[in-house]
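<instruction>
Derive C-alpha cells from the sequence
<data>
Labelled lines for chain and fold
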Amino acid sequence: MSRKNIVALFVMLGLGISIFWWEARKIDFRSLVTTFKSLNYGWLAVALLSILLSYAVEALVLHTLLKKKEDRKFGVWEMYRIPLIQALFNAITPFSSGGQPAQLVGLMQSKIDPGRASSVLLMKFIIYQAMVLVNFVVAMVVSFRSVAQHFSGLATLILFGMVIHLITISFLLMVMYYYDFTKKMVHVILKPILFFLKEEKRDRILKSTIESIDSFYNESLVLKREKKKVIKASLLTIVQLFLYYFVVYFVLLALNCDHVNVVDVLVMHIMIVMITSIFPIPGGSGGAEFSFKTLFAGFIPSPSGLILGMFLWRFITYYLGMFLGIIAVSKKPKIK
C-alpha cells in the first residue's frame, strides 16, 4: 500500500469512530454494555460466516470467469485474496474507484497476464452491476411503496441511486451493441465539458476515455461468446449478494429481534446499498449509518440496541473487509 492509501485508511477509520461516537453520545454507556452482554453470539457468528462466505463466492465467480482448460491450478488463497483486496480499496476510495485497479495488481501478482486479468475483471464488474440492479428492481416491486410511504426522504435517495445504476448499465450496453454511436456521443458530450481545460490535457482525457471504450468493447465480444460462463457467474453473483444482504438479518437476530420479517429486512438492506452508492465519500460513510438508523429504527425498539446493531452491521460489512484486505495485500501468493 502506498502512503496515500495508508493515510486514506486511517482517515476512514477516524471518520467511522467519529460517526459512532456522535450517534452514541446521548446513549447511556451502561445500557450499551447491558445490550452487548445480552447478544446472541451464535447469530453474530452466523453473520460473520455469511460475509466470509460472500467473499468466497465472489472468489468463485472470479475463478469461473478466469479458468481455462490449459491453465495451472489456481490456489484457494490466490482467488480468495482478490475480493478482500477489492473490499479494502473500495473502502478507502471515493465511489469505490480503487477496487478494480487493486484487483488487477492482485491478479498480476499471481502471474496472470494483465490483458486477460483486465478482461475478466471487466466481465465480473458488468455481471455484478447487472445483478445488483436486478435485485434492486425486484426489491422495488416488493416493497418500494412501503418505503416511499414511511421514509419519503430516503425514497428520493433510493430512486436517485437506481437512476445512477441504470445509467451505468445502459452505457455499458450501448458500448456493447452501439459501439460507433457511443464513441461519437462521448465526444459530443465531453468536448463542451472539457472546454475550459488546456488543449493538451483535454486531448489526453478524450484519448484515455476512447481507449477505455475500445478496451471495453473488445472485452464485451468475449463476454458474448462465453455465455455459459456468464450464466454461471451471474447465478453465483446472486448468491454472493444474498449472503451479503443476509448479514443485517443475522445481526438483528443477534440483538434478539426475533419478530422481524426476513423479506422486509432484505429489501431494506438492498435499499441501503443503493443509497450508499450515490455518496462520494468512501464507503458511503455517514449515509450508510443514517440509512440504517432510519430504516431499522422500527425493528430495534431500544436506542442502545439500534446503535449497537448499526456498529455490528457496519463492522462486519465494511471495516472487517478493510482489515482482511490489509492481510491480503501483505500476504502475496507463492507462485512457482
